[in-house]
Amino acid sequence: TLPKEPAVLRQNILDTTAAILACGIDPKKCLLFRQSLVPEHAELAWILGCLTNVPRLLRLPQWKMKRASQNSEGTVGLLTYPVLQAADILLYKSTRVPVGEDQVLHLELAQDIAQHFNKKYGEFFPVPKAILSEL
Description:
The protein has helices spanning 6-22, 39-49, 54-58, 61-69, 76-91, 104-121, and strands at 96-99, 129-132.
């Protein structure tokens, strides 16, 4: 949610890809792609954002904490990032999502958005369940 220099962003993408491959992810057995090249993520985020109310987003603790660390000036990107996360999950009709404790509320938002969408437009998105990671 913070601006990055283009060269740094490109290098971060390469570094992240290298780290994923170094962890043993086999690209012959799984699909590895750059999410930013899939326009449907942003398109669905827009649609879901139109169904999500601002007070719900303002209650998320991550918004409060990060906003405080950004000199009390939270950005729109910071506020709407959880909706983009919901779009990332719902776009692929995910049923189980591995998350850490710090992301449980964001997954609950994705669940709420899926339920709201389904109620309004008919059953379309499965309601994803959390798989809590253990550290």
